[in-house]
Protein backbone atom coordinates (compact mmCIF):
# COMPACT_ATOMS: atom_id res chain seq x y z
CA UNK A 1 0.00 0.00 0.00
CA UNK A 2 1.28 3.43 -0.94
CA UNK A 3 1.52 6.37 1.45
CA UNK A 4 1.11 9.84 0.05
CA UNK A 5 0.25 13.43 0.90
CA UNK A 6 -1.89 16.05 -0.80
CA UNK A 7 0.58 18.90 -1.29
CA UNK A 8 -0.56 22.31 -0.03
CA UNK A 9 2.25 24.85 -0.57
CA UNK A 10 3.34 26.54 2.65
CA UNK A 11 3.95 29.88 0.94
CA UNK A 12 0.91 31.35 -0.78
CA UNK A 13 -1.18 28.17 -0.68
CA UNK A 14 -2.33 27.25 -4.23
CA UNK A 15 -2.16 30.91 -5.21
CA UNK A 16 1.58 30.21 -5.40
CA UNK A 17 1.05 28.98 -8.97
CA UNK A 18 0.71 32.66 -9.91
CA UNK A 19 4.37 33.31 -8.99
CA UNK A 20 5.86 29.85 -8.87
CA UNK A 21 8.96 29.37 -6.71
CA UNK A 22 11.04 26.25 -7.27
CA UNK A 23 12.96 26.81 -4.02
CA UNK A 24 9.80 27.05 -1.90
CA UNK A 25 8.45 23.93 -3.58
CA UNK A 26 11.67 22.02 -3.00
CA UNK A 27 11.64 22.88 0.70
CA UNK A 28 8.07 21.64 1.07
CA UNK A 29 8.58 18.44 -0.90
CA UNK A 30 11.77 17.57 0.95
CA UNK A 31 9.79 17.80 4.19
CA UNK A 32 7.06 15.56 2.80
CA UNK A 33 9.64 12.99 1.68
CA UNK A 34 11.12 12.98 5.18
CA UNK A 35 7.84 11.47 6.43
CA UNK A 36 8.44 8.34 4.41
CA UNK A 37 5.76 9.26 1.87
CA UNK A 38 6.20 7.84 -1.61
CA UNK A 39 3.93 10.23 -3.56
CA UNK A 40 2.21 13.60 -3.58
CA UNK A 41 -0.92 14.88 -5.27
CA UNK A 42 -0.61 18.37 -6.76
CA UNK A 43 -3.22 20.93 -7.79
CA UNK A 44 -2.44 23.42 -10.57
CA UNK A 45 -5.25 25.98 -10.67
CA UNK A 46 -7.36 25.68 -13.80
CA UNK A 47 -7.74 29.46 -14.42
CA UNK A 48 -3.98 29.92 -14.13
CA UNK A 49 -3.26 27.33 -16.82
CA UNK A 50 -6.23 28.06 -19.11
CA UNK A 51 -7.29 31.69 -18.54
CA UNK A 52 -9.09 31.84 -21.88
CA UNK A 53 -11.01 29.05 -23.55
CA UNK A 54 -8.47 28.90 -26.39
CA UNK A 55 -5.35 29.80 -24.40
CA UNK A 56 -3.35 27.19 -22.51
CA UNK A 57 -0.28 28.88 -21.04
CA UNK A 58 2.99 27.07 -21.88
CA UNK A 59 4.76 28.55 -18.84
CA UNK A 60 2.09 27.22 -16.51
CA UNK A 61 2.53 23.75 -18.01
CA UNK A 62 6.29 24.04 -17.56
CA UNK A 63 5.77 24.98 -13.91
CA UNK A 64 3.70 21.84 -13.37
CA UNK A 65 6.39 19.71 -15.00
CA UNK A 66 9.03 21.37 -12.81
CA UNK A 67 7.11 20.41 -9.67
CA UNK A 68 7.00 16.81 -10.88
CA UNK A 69 10.76 16.92 -11.47
CA UNK A 70 11.48 18.42 -8.05
CA UNK A 71 9.35 15.75 -6.40
CA UNK A 72 11.26 13.09 -8.30
CA UNK A 73 14.53 14.43 -6.93
CA UNK A 74 13.25 13.52 -3.46
CA UNK A 75 12.01 10.09 -4.50
CA UNK A 76 8.34 11.12 -4.72
CA UNK A 77 5.91 10.07 -7.42
CA UNK A 78 3.28 12.63 -8.42
CA UNK A 79 -0.41 12.55 -9.22
CA UNK A 80 -1.46 15.69 -11.09
CA UNK A 81 -5.05 16.93 -10.67
CA UNK A 82 -6.39 18.78 -13.68
CA UNK A 83 -9.58 20.71 -12.87
CA UNK A 84 -9.29 22.93 -9.79
CA UNK A 85 -12.11 23.30 -9.66
CA UNK A 86 -12.96 23.34 -5.97
CA UNK A 87 -10.45 23.53 -3.12
CA UNK A 88 -11.04 24.17 0.58
CA UNK A 89 -14.39 25.97 0.09
CA UNK A 90 -13.17 28.13 -2.84
CA UNK A 91 -14.12 27.58 -6.49
CA UNK A 92 -11.49 28.09 -9.18
CA UNK A 93 -13.22 28.18 -12.54
CA UNK A 94 -12.02 30.28 -15.48
CA UNK A 95 -13.77 33.57 -16.21
CA UNK A 96 -14.80 32.18 -19.59
CA UNK A 97 -17.09 29.76 -17.73
CA UNK A 98 -18.64 32.15 -15.21
CA UNK A 99 -20.77 35.26 -14.83
CA UNK A 100 -21.46 36.87 -18.23
CA UNK A 101 -19.97 33.82 -19.97
CA UNK A 102 -21.60 31.15 -17.86
CA UNK A 103 -22.30 27.92 -19.70
CA UNK A 104 -22.78 24.38 -18.45
CA UNK A 105 -19.33 22.99 -17.75
CA UNK A 106 -20.48 19.42 -18.29
CA UNK A 107 -22.70 19.66 -21.38
CA UNK A 108 -21.86 22.72 -23.47
CA UNK A 109 -19.99 21.32 -26.52
CA UNK A 110 -17.47 24.17 -26.77
CA UNK A 111 -16.75 24.09 -23.04
CA UNK A 112 -16.31 20.31 -23.00
CA UNK A 113 -13.99 20.44 -26.01
CA UNK A 114 -11.87 23.23 -24.51
CA UNK A 115 -11.71 21.51 -21.13
CA UNK A 116 -10.64 18.28 -22.80
CA UNK A 117 -7.93 20.19 -24.66
CA UNK A 118 -6.59 21.47 -21.34
CA UNK A 119 -6.63 18.01 -19.74
CA UNK A 120 -4.82 16.58 -22.77
CA UNK A 121 -2.19 19.34 -22.75
CA UNK A 122 -1.56 18.94 -19.03
CA UNK A 123 -1.13 15.18 -19.37
CA UNK A 124 1.18 15.62 -22.34
CA UNK A 125 3.35 18.09 -20.41
CA UNK A 126 4.26 15.45 -17.83
CA UNK A 127 3.82 12.26 -19.86
CA UNK A 128 7.52 11.42 -20.01
CA UNK A 129 8.29 11.96 -16.33
CA UNK A 130 9.39 8.64 -14.79
CA UNK A 131 7.81 9.55 -11.45
CA UNK A 132 4.35 10.40 -12.81
CA UNK A 133 1.84 8.38 -10.80
CA UNK A 134 -1.13 9.58 -12.80
CA UNK A 135 -3.63 12.24 -13.84
CA UNK A 136 -6.86 12.87 -11.95
CA UNK A 137 -9.53 14.69 -13.91
CA UNK A 138 -10.14 17.07 -11.02
CA UNK A 139 -10.74 17.58 -7.35
CA UNK A 140 -14.33 16.63 -6.49
CA UNK A 141 -15.73 18.18 -9.65
CA UNK A 142 -19.07 16.51 -8.90
CA UNK A 143 -19.70 19.24 -6.30
CA UNK A 144 -20.47 21.56 -9.24
CA UNK A 145 -23.29 19.27 -10.39
CA UNK A 146 -25.79 19.63 -7.57
CA UNK A 147 -26.69 21.31 -4.28
CA UNK A 148 -25.30 22.39 -1.88
CA UNK A 149 -23.30 24.25 -4.53
CA UNK A 150 -24.92 27.72 -4.76
CA UNK A 151 -25.02 27.67 -8.57
CA UNK A 152 -24.86 24.09 -9.83
CA UNK A 153 -24.39 23.08 -13.44
CA UNK A 154 -27.34 20.73 -13.81
CA UNK A 155 -26.79 17.42 -15.58
CA UNK A 156 -28.20 13.92 -15.73
CA UNK A 157 -26.29 10.78 -14.77
CA UNK A 158 -25.99 9.88 -18.46
CA UNK A 159 -24.48 13.29 -19.25
CA UNK A 160 -22.08 12.79 -16.36
CA UNK A 161 -20.90 9.53 -17.92
CA UNK A 162 -20.35 11.24 -21.27
CA UNK A 163 -18.37 14.05 -19.66
CA UNK A 164 -16.21 11.70 -17.57
CA UNK A 165 -15.50 9.50 -20.59
CA UNK A 166 -14.44 12.53 -22.64
CA UNK A 167 -12.06 13.75 -19.92
CA UNK A 168 -10.50 10.32 -19.37
CA UNK A 169 -9.99 9.94 -23.11
CA UNK A 170 -8.32 13.35 -23.26
CA UNK A 171 -5.92 12.46 -20.46
CA UNK A 172 -5.00 9.21 -22.16
CA UNK A 173 -4.38 11.00 -25.44
CA UNK A 174 -2.02 13.35 -23.66
CA UNK A 175 -0.17 10.55 -21.92
CA UNK A 176 0.26 8.58 -25.12
CA UNK A 177 1.12 11.54 -27.33
CA UNK A 178 3.21 13.75 -25.09
CA UNK A 179 6.58 15.01 -26.36
CA UNK A 180 8.47 12.38 -24.40
CA UNK A 181 5.88 9.62 -24.43
CA UNK A 182 8.15 7.33 -26.46
CA UNK A 183 10.34 7.01 -23.39
CA UNK A 184 7.60 5.69 -21.11
CA UNK A 185 9.38 2.36 -20.77
CA UNK A 186 11.80 4.14 -18.42
CA UNK A 187 9.00 4.91 -15.97
CA UNK A 188 9.26 3.82 -12.35
CA UNK A 189 6.70 1.09 -11.74
CA UNK A 190 3.60 0.78 -13.91
CA UNK A 191 2.02 3.09 -16.45
CA UNK A 192 0.40 6.28 -15.10
CA UNK A 193 -3.17 6.04 -13.89
CA UNK A 194 -6.07 8.15 -15.10
CA UNK A 195 -8.71 8.63 -12.41
CA UNK A 196 -11.96 10.48 -11.69
CA UNK A 197 -12.28 11.88 -8.15
CA UNK A 198 -15.59 12.67 -6.43
CA UNK A 199 -16.63 13.81 -3.00
CA UNK A 200 -18.77 11.46 -0.96
CA UNK A 201 -22.18 12.66 -2.18
CA UNK A 202 -21.52 10.21 -5.01
CA UNK A 203 -21.92 7.41 -2.45
CA UNK A 204 -24.39 8.97 0.00
CA UNK A 205 -26.78 11.31 -1.88
CA UNK A 206 -29.33 9.78 -4.25
CA UNK A 207 -29.91 13.20 -5.87
CA UNK A 208 -26.26 13.72 -6.86
CA UNK A 209 -25.97 13.09 -10.63
CA UNK A 210 -22.46 11.65 -10.30
CA UNK A 211 -22.74 8.33 -8.50
CA UNK A 212 -20.83 5.15 -7.72
CA UNK A 213 -20.89 4.01 -11.33
CA UNK A 214 -19.05 7.14 -12.44
CA UNK A 215 -16.22 6.28 -10.05
CA UNK A 216 -16.10 2.58 -10.89
CA UNK A 217 -16.67 2.72 -14.65
CA UNK A 218 -14.19 5.44 -15.64
CA UNK A 219 -10.43 5.50 -15.36
CA UNK A 220 -8.01 2.99 -13.92
CA UNK A 221 -8.84 3.03 -10.19
CA UNK A 222 -11.85 3.76 -8.01
CA UNK A 223 -11.31 6.90 -5.94
CA UNK A 224 -12.80 7.75 -2.55
CA UNK A 225 -12.51 10.89 -0.40
CA UNK A 226 -13.27 10.38 3.29
CA UNK A 227 -14.26 13.27 5.56
CA UNK A 228 -15.91 12.62 8.91
CA UNK A 229 -17.37 16.13 9.13
CA UNK A 230 -20.15 14.73 6.91
CA UNK A 231 -22.07 13.64 10.03
CA UNK A 232 -19.96 10.60 10.80
CA UNK A 233 -18.05 12.12 13.72
CA UNK A 234 -21.21 13.73 15.10
CA UNK A 235 -22.85 10.30 15.14
CA UNK A 236 -19.95 8.18 16.39
CA UNK A 237 -17.58 10.60 18.12
CA UNK A 238 -14.12 11.58 16.85
CA UNK A 239 -12.48 8.27 17.78
CA UNK A 240 -15.57 6.08 17.61
CA UNK A 241 -15.43 3.01 15.41
CA UNK A 242 -17.66 4.58 12.79
CA UNK A 243 -15.26 7.51 12.48
CA UNK A 244 -11.88 5.77 12.40
CA UNK A 245 -13.34 3.10 10.07
CA UNK A 246 -15.03 5.58 7.74
CA UNK A 247 -12.23 5.46 5.20
CA UNK A 248 -12.24 1.67 5.25
CA UNK A 249 -16.03 1.64 4.87
CA UNK A 250 -15.92 3.95 1.85
CA UNK A 251 -13.25 1.81 0.19
CA UNK A 252 -15.37 -1.32 0.66
CA UNK A 253 -18.53 0.46 -0.46
CA UNK A 254 -16.85 1.77 -3.59
CA UNK A 255 -15.33 -1.61 -4.43
CA UNK A 256 -18.82 -3.11 -4.66
CA UNK A 257 -19.36 -1.22 -7.92
CA UNK A 258 -16.09 -2.34 -9.51
CA UNK A 259 -16.92 -4.51 -12.51
CA UNK A 260 -13.48 -6.12 -12.57
CA UNK A 261 -12.10 -7.94 -9.50
CA UNK A 262 -8.75 -6.52 -8.51
CA UNK A 263 -9.46 -2.99 -9.71
CA UNK A 264 -7.39 -0.68 -7.45
CA UNK A 265 -9.21 1.24 -4.72
CA UNK A 266 -7.52 4.52 -3.73
CA UNK A 267 -8.37 6.57 -0.65
CA UNK A 268 -7.05 9.66 -2.36
CA UNK A 269 -8.12 12.19 0.22
CA UNK A 270 -8.64 11.81 3.97
CA UNK A 271 -7.81 14.05 6.90
CA UNK A 272 -8.47 14.85 10.55
CA UNK A 273 -10.76 17.92 10.51
CA UNK A 274 -10.45 19.81 13.78
CA UNK A 275 -14.06 21.00 13.74
CA UNK A 276 -15.05 17.42 14.69
CA UNK A 277 -11.72 15.78 15.66
CA UNK A 278 -10.01 17.62 18.54
CA UNK A 279 -6.30 18.32 18.09
CA UNK A 280 -5.57 15.96 20.98
CA UNK A 281 -7.20 13.12 19.03
CA UNK A 282 -5.73 13.87 15.59
CA UNK A 283 -2.74 11.53 15.89
CA UNK A 284 -4.86 8.61 17.07
CA UNK A 285 -7.46 9.30 14.39
CA UNK A 286 -4.72 9.31 11.74
CA UNK A 287 -3.16 6.07 12.90
CA UNK A 288 -6.42 4.16 13.32
CA UNK A 289 -7.84 5.38 10.01
CA UNK A 290 -4.80 4.24 8.04
CA UNK A 291 -4.53 0.89 9.84
CA UNK A 292 -8.15 0.06 9.09
CA UNK A 293 -7.83 1.02 5.42
CA UNK A 294 -4.75 -1.18 5.13
CA UNK A 295 -6.92 -4.21 5.93
CA UNK A 296 -9.14 -3.76 2.87
CA UNK A 297 -8.47 -5.51 -0.43
CA UNK A 298 -6.83 -4.05 -3.52
CA UNK A 299 -5.94 -0.77 -1.80
CA UNK A 300 -3.62 1.25 -3.99
CA UNK A 301 -2.84 3.66 -1.19
CA UNK A 302 -3.81 6.41 1.21
CA UNK A 303 -3.09 10.06 0.35
CA UNK A 304 -3.48 12.28 3.42
CA UNK A 305 -4.93 15.77 3.38
CA UNK A 306 -2.73 17.65 3.68
CA UNK A 307 0.96 18.54 3.88
CA UNK A 308 0.98 22.04 5.42
CA UNK A 309 -1.48 24.17 7.37
CA UNK A 310 -2.92 27.17 5.54
CA UNK A 311 -1.25 30.39 6.65
CA UNK A 312 -3.25 32.57 9.02
CA UNK A 313 -2.26 35.50 6.79
CA UNK A 314 -4.78 34.24 4.22
CA UNK A 315 -8.37 35.27 4.85
CA UNK A 316 -11.82 33.70 4.69
CA UNK A 317 -11.01 30.00 4.93
CA UNK A 318 -13.22 27.84 7.14
CA UNK A 319 -11.45 27.52 10.49
CA UNK A 320 -10.66 23.84 10.06
CA UNK A 321 -8.62 24.54 6.91
CA UNK A 322 -5.96 26.34 8.95
CA UNK A 323 -5.15 23.17 10.92
CA UNK A 324 -5.35 20.19 8.55
CA UNK A 325 -1.64 19.87 7.78
CA UNK A 326 0.79 17.21 8.90
CA UNK A 327 3.15 20.18 9.25
CA UNK A 328 2.39 23.62 10.64
CA UNK A 329 2.60 26.41 8.11
CA UNK A 330 6.17 27.19 9.23
CA UNK A 331 7.25 23.55 8.84
CA UNK A 332 7.02 22.04 12.33
CA UNK A 333 5.90 18.42 12.37
CA UNK A 334 2.59 17.93 14.20
CA UNK A 335 1.48 14.84 16.18
CA UNK A 336 -0.67 13.68 13.27
CA UNK A 337 2.40 13.98 11.06
CA UNK A 338 4.39 11.85 13.47
CA UNK A 339 1.68 9.20 13.38
CA UNK A 340 1.58 9.25 9.58
CA UNK A 341 5.37 9.05 9.35
CA UNK A 342 5.58 6.06 11.69
CA UNK A 343 3.15 4.12 9.52
CA UNK A 344 4.67 5.22 6.22
CA UNK A 345 8.20 4.29 7.28
CA UNK A 346 7.08 0.90 8.57
CA UNK A 347 4.93 0.20 5.51
CA UNK A 348 1.54 -1.47 5.61
CA UNK A 349 1.44 -5.26 5.51
CA UNK A 350 -0.39 -6.55 2.48
CA UNK A 351 -3.37 -8.71 3.48
CA UNK A 352 -2.88 -12.27 2.30
CA UNK A 353 -6.53 -12.55 1.23
CA UNK A 354 -9.54 -10.24 1.00
CA UNK A 355 -12.18 -10.32 3.72
CA UNK A 356 -14.22 -13.45 3.04
CA UNK A 357 -17.53 -12.05 4.28
CA UNK A 358 -19.66 -9.67 2.23
CA UNK A 359 -22.70 -7.62 3.24
CA UNK A 360 -25.47 -7.38 0.64
CA UNK A 361 -26.43 -3.88 -0.51
CA UNK A 362 -29.92 -3.59 -1.99
CA UNK A 363 -29.27 -1.60 -5.15
CA UNK A 364 -32.26 -3.13 -6.97
CA UNK A 365 -35.87 -3.98 -6.18
CA UNK A 366 -37.15 -7.58 -6.28
CA UNK A 367 -38.06 -7.14 -9.96
CA UNK A 368 -34.51 -6.04 -10.78
CA UNK A 369 -35.22 -2.34 -11.35
CA UNK A 370 -32.88 0.19 -9.72
CA UNK A 371 -33.84 1.05 -6.16
CA UNK A 372 -34.02 4.71 -5.16
CA UNK A 373 -32.68 5.30 -1.67
CA UNK A 374 -29.71 2.97 -1.85
CA UNK A 375 -27.22 5.77 -1.32
CA UNK A 376 -29.19 7.21 1.62
CA UNK A 377 -28.97 3.78 3.28
CA UNK A 378 -25.20 3.95 2.92
CA UNK A 379 -24.83 7.45 4.39
CA UNK A 380 -23.86 8.09 8.03
CA UNK A 381 -26.77 6.94 10.17
CA UNK A 382 -28.23 4.84 7.35
CA UNK A 383 -29.33 1.27 7.94
CA UNK A 384 -26.69 -0.24 5.65
CA UNK A 385 -23.89 1.84 7.18
CA UNK A 386 -24.96 0.68 10.65
CA UNK A 387 -25.05 -2.97 9.61
CA UNK A 388 -21.60 -2.76 8.01
CA UNK A 389 -20.12 -1.22 11.14
CA UNK A 390 -21.69 -3.84 13.42
CA UNK A 391 -20.30 -6.61 11.26
CA UNK A 392 -16.87 -4.98 11.12
CA UNK A 393 -16.69 -4.58 14.88
CA UNK A 394 -17.66 -8.21 15.44
CA UNK A 395 -15.14 -9.64 12.94
CA UNK A 396 -12.58 -11.94 14.50
CA UNK A 397 -9.77 -10.54 12.36
CA UNK A 398 -10.80 -6.90 12.91
CA UNK A 399 -11.41 -6.29 9.21
CA UNK A 400 -14.61 -4.86 7.83
CA UNK A 401 -16.60 -6.96 5.36
CA UNK A 402 -16.70 -6.54 1.64
CA UNK A 403 -19.89 -5.22 0.05
CA UNK A 404 -21.72 -7.03 -2.73
CA UNK A 405 -24.54 -5.51 -4.77
CA UNK A 406 -27.75 -7.53 -4.88
CA UNK A 407 -27.80 -6.98 -8.64
CA UNK A 408 -24.53 -8.96 -8.84
CA UNK A 409 -25.16 -11.50 -6.12
CA UNK A 410 -25.95 -14.28 -8.58
CA UNK A 411 -22.60 -13.87 -10.36
CA UNK A 412 -20.70 -16.76 -8.81
CA UNK A 413 -17.58 -16.08 -10.88
CA UNK A 414 -17.40 -12.51 -9.61
CA UNK A 415 -17.91 -13.61 -6.01
CA UNK A 416 -15.22 -16.22 -6.35
CA UNK A 417 -12.75 -13.82 -7.92
CA UNK A 418 -13.35 -11.38 -5.06
CA UNK A 419 -12.77 -14.12 -2.48
CA UNK A 420 -16.28 -13.91 -1.03
CA UNK A 421 -17.04 -17.11 0.86
CA UNK A 422 -20.17 -16.09 2.76
CA UNK A 423 -22.80 -13.41 2.66
CA UNK A 424 -24.74 -11.46 5.26
CA UNK A 425 -28.12 -9.80 4.74
CA UNK A 426 -28.97 -6.51 6.41
CA UNK A 427 -31.61 -7.25 9.06
CA UNK A 428 -35.01 -5.98 8.01
CA UNK A 429 -35.68 -4.33 11.37
CA UNK A 430 -32.36 -2.54 11.64
CA UNK A 431 -32.86 1.08 12.72
CA UNK A 432 -29.25 2.14 13.15
CA UNK A 433 -29.33 1.96 16.96
CA UNK A 434 -30.20 -1.63 17.83
CA UNK A 435 -27.96 -3.83 15.72
CA UNK A 436 -28.50 -7.52 15.10
CA UNK A 437 -26.36 -9.04 12.37
CA UNK A 438 -27.84 -11.92 10.43
CA UNK A 439 -26.06 -15.24 10.67
CA UNK A 440 -23.65 -15.58 7.73
CA UNK A 441 -24.93 -17.85 4.99
CA UNK A 442 -22.69 -20.36 3.26
CA UNK A 443 -22.20 -19.34 -0.35
CA UNK A 444 -23.66 -21.66 -2.98
Task: Write a brief structural summary.
The chain has 444 residues and is α/β, with parallel strands linked by helices. The chain is built from 15 helices and 14 strands. The longest helix is centred in the middle third of the chain and has 21 residues, at 157-177.
Query: What is the CATH superfamily classification of the largest domain?
Result: Glycosidases
Please provide the ordered H/E string of secondary-structure elements: EHEHHEEEHEHEHHEHHHEHEHEHHEHEE
Helical fraction: 25-40%
DSSP helix count?
A: 15
Give the CATH level 1 class of the largest domain: Alpha Beta
Question: How many individual domains?
Answer: 2
Distance N to C terminus? 32 Å
Question: What would you call the shape?
Answer: globular
Spatial strand sequence of the major β-sheet = 7-6-3-2-1-10-9-8
Class inferred from helices and paired strands = alpha/beta
Tell me what the CATH architecture of the largest domain is: Alpha-Beta Barrel
Classify the beta-strand content into a percent band: 5-15%
Low-confidence stretches: 180-187, 430-444
Mean pLDDT: 93
Organism: Curtobacterium luteum
Protein name: Glycosyl hydrolase
Amino acid sequence: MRFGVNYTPAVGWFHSWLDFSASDTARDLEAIASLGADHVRIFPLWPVVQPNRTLIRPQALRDVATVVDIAGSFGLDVNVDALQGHLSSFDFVPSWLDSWHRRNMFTDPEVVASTAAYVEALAAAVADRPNLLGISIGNEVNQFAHAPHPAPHDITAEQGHAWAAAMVAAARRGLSGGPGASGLEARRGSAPLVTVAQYDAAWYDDAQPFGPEHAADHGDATITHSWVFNGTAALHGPLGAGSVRHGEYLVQLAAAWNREPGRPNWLQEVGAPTNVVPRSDAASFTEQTIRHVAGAQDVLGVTWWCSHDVSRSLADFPELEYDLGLFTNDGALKPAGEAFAALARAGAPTPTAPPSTALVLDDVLPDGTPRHGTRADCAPGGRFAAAWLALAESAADGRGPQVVLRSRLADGALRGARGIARIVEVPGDLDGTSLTVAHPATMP
